[in-house]
Amino acid sequence: MEPEPFGTVRSPPHAEPDRATIREQLERMVADPLFKHSKRYPNLLRYVVERTLEGAAADLKERTLGIAVFGREPSYDTSTDPVVRATAGEIRKRIAQYYQEPGREHEIRISLSPGSYVPEFSWSPADTASSEASPGIRERRWRPKYTVIASALAVALLIGALLVKPWVPRTALADFWRPVLDSSNTVLICIGQRRFLATSPESPNDATGDIDQVRKGLGDPNAPISLFQLYYKGSENIGIDDAVSFGHIAAVLQSNGKTYRVRGQSSTSVWDLRDGPVILIGAFNNDWTMRLMGPLRFNYERDGNTFWIQDRQNPASRNRAIDYSGPYLKITEDYALISRTLEASTGRMVVVIGGLTGYGTLAASEFLSNPSYMQAAVQQAPKDWRRKNIQFLIETRVVGGGSGPPRLVDQYFW
Asked: What total number of domains does the chain contain?
């Protein structure tokens, strides 16, 4: 049977039963998989529906929504930051998909017309006929009308939102990821890959001399395995710590409805880095990390068997270092860098997550997926840190072959 057309719409839902019914439908929609795996889509849809039900739809404009829902500064540029337009467009598509599902023909229809952020509420003829005695039902599509009092209340609500807090509670972790999540482009996750240093006689020698480090101890079954042997006996693969780190970051992107693609560093070109935001996982096993971090204050350095994180403000110090020739089971601590910078050569936001070993990388990924760590980290940050380039230096204890909780030891904003 063909679904009944939606042409009968209630008047502005001033009556509390109408409001309650619309709110029930709203919650039904945002609980659907089309919405529930994202934060941005339900937050914006909830906000515009609630403001409309409260008689404040006159102020549902792009800038005010960017401020109240997405925590933007009052002076932000809507032409270069289209977060409201992009999110609303995606909501419209998901609403259409939602109502195409069988069995939803008689549900209240909540819609956003193109070019507007004011929702419309539609009832099917069958629902209207069942409630003819209800006041305020009209045979036409309703668009909100507003009185001077309603407009004044709307302005008051907006001012209150600006002075108190945004509609969606802002977290430091969300602010850190915002330049990545709000981009209209797909995110590239580039994962480091270990270089293959074979140990058979027919294999060519490696110019760096690392092949000799891999061969050391192979004739002695009692010799401990070194980090060189652990990290270089694989081929085009990724370490388990990098894989788990990828899982942490992918979960952050998925929970915010952000699409991403994954590549190994050996198959990533500079053209890939120009397509959109980039997340680099790994340090010494990721050539792109080493290239892009080189000019920054905190970067990765190596001298023979010693790998360390250098601070250009104190370049002689090597107090955050690891000797790769030592037994890997003897490692008691590791260090990692987290970096969020607007890369000048590509014009794209780049996030780096890399430790001296996999332990540090894993700790850094935990830092970037747990709101409590970031909230504590920015307590002493500049007020405008959200718009700055950022570097965090992380330390983690290694116990029983596993990394402990991340601990912030230094940070830099510019």
From this structure: 2
Give the residues across from 350 on adjacent strands: 278, 341
> What element of type H or E holds 401?
none
Residue 398 shares a structural domain with residue 268? yes
Q: pTM for this one?
A: 0.56
> Rounded CA gap, 322 and 325, in Å?
9
Tell me the CATH number at 388: 3.30.379
Residues whose CB falls within 8 Å of the CB of residue 45, separated by 6 or more in sequence, listed in order: 26, 29, 30, 35, 91, 110, 119
Cα-Cα-Cα-Cα dihedral sign, residues 187, 63, 374, 344: positive
- One-letter amino acid of 369: S
For residue range 260-286, what is the model confidence (pLDDT) as tens digits?
999 988 888 888 898 899 999 999 999
Over the stretch 183-238, which tens digit does the pLDDT of each residue have?
889 999 999 986 655 444 444 544 456 666 666 766 677 777 777 666 555 445 67
Give the C-alpha separation, 393 to 225, whole Å: 28
Question: Strand pairing of 278-281 and 348-355?
Answer: parallel
DSSP state of 123: B
5 CB-side CA count, 13 A: 5
